[in-house]
Specification:
single chain, about 210 residues, alpha/beta, Rossmann fold, Arc Repressor Mutant, subunit A, 2 domains, 5-stranded parallel β-sheet, 10 helices, globular
Protein backbone atom coordinates (compact mmCIF):
# COMPACT_ATOMS: atom_id res chain seq x y z
CA UNK A 1 0.00 0.00 0.00
CA UNK A 2 1.49 3.33 -1.12
CA UNK A 3 0.84 6.23 1.27
CA UNK A 4 0.62 9.61 -0.48
CA UNK A 5 0.27 12.93 1.34
CA UNK A 6 -1.40 15.55 -0.89
CA UNK A 7 -0.95 19.17 0.16
CA UNK A 8 -3.02 21.70 -1.79
CA UNK A 9 -5.49 24.35 -0.64
CA UNK A 10 -7.95 23.44 -3.42
CA UNK A 11 -10.08 20.38 -2.77
CA UNK A 12 -10.71 19.85 -6.49
CA UNK A 13 -6.96 19.55 -7.10
CA UNK A 14 -6.54 17.06 -4.26
CA UNK A 15 -9.41 14.99 -5.66
CA UNK A 16 -7.85 15.09 -9.12
CA UNK A 17 -4.48 13.87 -7.85
CA UNK A 18 -6.17 11.06 -5.91
CA UNK A 19 -8.05 9.88 -9.01
CA UNK A 20 -4.85 9.74 -11.04
CA UNK A 21 -3.16 7.43 -8.55
CA UNK A 22 -6.23 5.34 -7.87
CA UNK A 23 -6.29 4.54 -11.59
CA UNK A 24 -2.53 3.98 -11.76
CA UNK A 25 -2.05 1.78 -8.70
CA UNK A 26 -5.43 0.95 -7.21
CA UNK A 27 -3.73 0.39 -3.84
CA UNK A 28 -2.87 3.90 -2.71
CA UNK A 29 -3.88 5.42 0.63
CA UNK A 30 -4.11 9.20 0.88
CA UNK A 31 -3.70 11.93 3.42
CA UNK A 32 -5.07 15.35 2.52
CA UNK A 33 -4.00 18.75 3.81
CA UNK A 34 -5.50 22.08 2.75
CA UNK A 35 -3.18 24.21 4.88
CA UNK A 36 0.48 24.24 5.85
CA UNK A 37 -0.38 23.45 9.46
CA UNK A 38 -2.46 20.41 8.48
CA UNK A 39 0.41 19.17 6.31
CA UNK A 40 2.98 19.51 9.09
CA UNK A 41 0.66 17.81 11.59
CA UNK A 42 0.08 14.84 9.26
CA UNK A 43 3.82 14.60 8.60
CA UNK A 44 4.52 14.40 12.34
CA UNK A 45 1.75 11.92 13.08
CA UNK A 46 2.32 9.43 10.25
CA UNK A 47 4.96 8.18 7.85
CA UNK A 48 4.38 8.68 4.12
CA UNK A 49 5.95 7.23 1.01
CA UNK A 50 5.75 10.53 -0.86
CA UNK A 51 4.29 14.01 -0.48
CA UNK A 52 2.81 16.03 -3.36
CA UNK A 53 3.05 19.70 -2.41
CA UNK A 54 1.62 22.86 -3.97
CA UNK A 55 3.76 25.97 -3.48
CA UNK A 56 0.73 28.27 -3.07
CA UNK A 57 -0.83 27.69 0.34
CA UNK A 58 -2.60 30.88 1.31
CA UNK A 59 -0.45 32.88 3.69
CA UNK A 60 2.45 30.42 3.86
CA UNK A 61 5.33 30.33 1.43
CA UNK A 62 5.39 26.83 -0.05
CA UNK A 63 9.18 26.71 0.00
CA UNK A 64 9.15 27.36 3.75
CA UNK A 65 6.62 24.53 4.18
CA UNK A 66 8.86 22.27 2.10
CA UNK A 67 11.83 23.01 4.36
CA UNK A 68 9.74 22.28 7.47
CA UNK A 69 8.48 18.99 6.01
CA UNK A 70 12.08 17.96 5.35
CA UNK A 71 13.02 18.84 8.93
CA UNK A 72 10.22 16.63 10.26
CA UNK A 73 10.78 13.80 7.75
CA UNK A 74 14.25 14.18 6.20
CA UNK A 75 13.83 11.03 4.08
CA UNK A 76 10.36 11.91 2.77
CA UNK A 77 10.49 12.52 -1.01
CA UNK A 78 8.52 15.67 -1.84
CA UNK A 79 7.23 16.29 -5.35
CA UNK A 80 6.26 19.88 -6.12
CA UNK A 81 3.05 20.22 -8.15
CA UNK A 82 2.71 23.90 -8.90
CA UNK A 83 0.92 26.41 -11.08
CA UNK A 84 4.20 28.35 -11.23
CA UNK A 85 6.43 27.76 -14.22
CA UNK A 86 9.67 25.86 -13.75
CA UNK A 87 11.68 29.00 -14.45
CA UNK A 88 10.12 30.67 -11.42
CA UNK A 89 10.58 28.17 -8.63
CA UNK A 90 12.14 24.85 -9.65
CA UNK A 91 15.75 25.65 -8.76
CA UNK A 92 14.71 27.13 -5.41
CA UNK A 93 12.52 24.10 -4.71
CA UNK A 94 15.39 21.68 -5.35
CA UNK A 95 17.69 23.70 -3.12
CA UNK A 96 15.03 23.53 -0.38
CA UNK A 97 14.92 19.73 -0.61
CA UNK A 98 12.37 18.84 -3.29
CA UNK A 99 12.83 15.55 -5.13
CA UNK A 100 10.90 16.62 -8.22
CA UNK A 101 9.01 19.48 -9.84
CA UNK A 102 6.07 19.36 -12.24
CA UNK A 103 3.54 22.00 -13.20
CA UNK A 104 -0.22 21.62 -12.95
CA UNK A 105 -0.35 21.71 -16.73
CA UNK A 106 1.49 18.38 -16.89
CA UNK A 107 -0.22 15.23 -18.13
CA UNK A 108 -1.51 12.51 -15.80
CA UNK A 109 1.13 10.15 -17.16
CA UNK A 110 3.92 12.60 -16.38
CA UNK A 111 2.66 13.17 -12.83
CA UNK A 112 2.46 9.43 -12.17
CA UNK A 113 5.95 8.96 -13.64
CA UNK A 114 7.30 11.74 -11.42
CA UNK A 115 5.84 10.24 -8.23
CA UNK A 116 7.19 6.79 -9.12
CA UNK A 117 10.67 8.23 -9.78
CA UNK A 118 10.94 10.19 -6.52
CA UNK A 119 9.52 7.30 -4.46
CA UNK A 120 12.37 5.14 -5.77
CA UNK A 121 14.89 7.69 -4.54
CA UNK A 122 15.45 9.56 -7.79
CA UNK A 123 15.03 13.17 -8.85
CA UNK A 124 12.43 14.15 -11.41
CA UNK A 125 12.69 17.06 -13.80
CA UNK A 126 11.06 17.53 -17.16
CA UNK A 127 13.34 17.38 -20.23
CA UNK A 128 12.81 21.12 -20.75
CA UNK A 129 13.92 21.94 -17.20
CA UNK A 130 16.88 19.55 -17.43
CA UNK A 131 18.11 21.44 -20.48
CA UNK A 132 17.73 24.79 -18.71
CA UNK A 133 19.64 23.52 -15.67
CA UNK A 134 22.51 22.31 -17.85
CA UNK A 135 22.66 25.62 -19.69
CA UNK A 136 22.62 27.49 -16.39
CA UNK A 137 25.80 25.74 -15.21
CA UNK A 138 27.80 28.19 -17.30
CA UNK A 139 26.27 31.05 -15.35
CA UNK A 140 26.61 29.64 -11.82
CA UNK A 141 29.83 31.51 -11.15
CA UNK A 142 27.94 34.77 -11.61
CA UNK A 143 24.52 34.71 -9.94
CA UNK A 144 21.60 36.42 -11.63
CA UNK A 145 20.32 39.35 -9.61
CA UNK A 146 17.13 37.58 -8.59
CA UNK A 147 19.15 34.66 -7.19
CA UNK A 148 20.34 36.96 -4.39
CA UNK A 149 16.77 37.35 -3.10
CA UNK A 150 15.36 35.27 -0.28
CA UNK A 151 12.49 32.93 -1.16
CA UNK A 152 9.91 35.36 0.26
CA UNK A 153 11.52 38.34 -1.49
CA UNK A 154 11.50 36.41 -4.76
CA UNK A 155 7.81 35.58 -4.28
CA UNK A 156 6.96 39.24 -3.63
CA UNK A 157 9.00 40.34 -6.65
CA UNK A 158 7.09 37.97 -8.92
CA UNK A 159 3.77 39.24 -7.57
CA UNK A 160 4.83 42.85 -8.14
CA UNK A 161 5.96 41.99 -11.65
CA UNK A 162 2.61 40.32 -12.36
CA UNK A 163 0.89 43.66 -11.74
CA UNK A 164 -0.44 43.23 -8.21
CA UNK A 165 -0.58 46.21 -5.86
CA UNK A 166 0.94 46.28 -2.38
CA UNK A 167 -2.53 45.79 -0.90
CA UNK A 168 -3.30 42.82 -3.14
CA UNK A 169 0.03 41.17 -2.34
CA UNK A 170 -0.52 41.74 1.38
CA UNK A 171 -3.92 40.05 1.16
CA UNK A 172 -2.55 37.14 -0.90
CA UNK A 173 0.28 36.45 1.56
CA UNK A 174 -1.69 37.36 4.72
CA UNK A 175 0.84 40.05 5.61
CA UNK A 176 0.50 43.76 6.34
CA UNK A 177 0.88 46.48 3.70
CA UNK A 178 3.83 47.82 5.70
CA UNK A 179 5.60 44.44 5.59
CA UNK A 180 5.12 44.18 1.82
CA UNK A 181 6.41 47.73 1.36
CA UNK A 182 9.49 46.79 3.38
CA UNK A 183 10.04 43.74 1.18
CA UNK A 184 9.62 45.91 -1.92
CA UNK A 185 12.26 48.38 -0.71
CA UNK A 186 14.66 45.55 0.11
CA UNK A 187 14.09 43.91 -3.29
CA UNK A 188 14.71 47.14 -5.19
CA UNK A 189 17.90 47.72 -3.21
CA UNK A 190 19.23 44.19 -3.82
CA UNK A 191 18.29 44.33 -7.51
CA UNK A 192 19.80 47.82 -7.85
CA UNK A 193 16.53 49.17 -9.25
CA UNK A 194 14.30 52.14 -8.53
CA UNK A 195 10.81 51.30 -9.82
CA UNK A 196 8.26 48.52 -10.23
CA UNK A 197 8.54 49.01 -13.98
CA UNK A 198 12.21 48.00 -13.87
CA UNK A 199 11.33 44.92 -11.82
CA UNK A 200 8.58 43.99 -14.25
CA UNK A 201 10.82 44.35 -17.29
CA UNK A 202 13.52 42.24 -15.62
CA UNK A 203 11.03 39.51 -14.60
CA UNK A 204 9.53 39.29 -18.08
CA UNK A 205 12.95 39.31 -19.78
CA UNK A 206 14.11 36.45 -17.50
CA UNK A 207 10.86 34.47 -17.89
CA UNK A 208 10.03 34.76 -14.17
CA UNK A 209 6.39 35.68 -14.75
CA UNK A 210 3.91 34.06 -17.12
Amino acid sequence: MIKILIVDDHEVVRDGVKKIFEKQTGTAAFGEAGTAQEALTLAREEEWDVAVLDLSLGGRNGLEVLKELKQIRPRLPVLILSMHSEEQYARRAFRAGAAGYVTKGSSRVELAKAVDKVMKGGKYVTPALAEKLVLSLDRDSRLSRHETLSDREFEVMCLIASGKTVGEIAETLSLSNKTISTYRSRILEKMDMKTNAELTYYAIHNHLVD
